[in-house]
Amino acid sequence: MIWRCEKGHEGEAAVKSRTINKTGCPYCSHNKVLAGFNDLATLLPDIAAEWSDRNYPLLPTQVTVFVNRKAWWKCKDCGREWNTLISNRYVCDHFCRYWLDNSICCFGRKSRCLYGRFPS
Question: What is the pTM of this model?
């Protein structure tokens, strides 16, 4: 059966899935990507700007911010690349793996990341 959520998104789901399991809209719940609505490039453009070309053909418009999938990132400040879960970038949007490994976050932006808020 085809359903339409309150925001106008349409999706196909069994009646049991929507009524008993309460799955809701797959786009509003971030289970499916809808470019221009819930994709990484739309919701977090600063993080999407650090998306590495090594991920090609996958693009930041094809993933949600909550997906537990690894991707390559290129620090816009130091140029180093690292691989981490896309959802980790949502938790701390400006983590450069190189600087984290050396006990500092990129160029003093500690207030924008969990490392800076909760140092070990």
Answer: 0.72
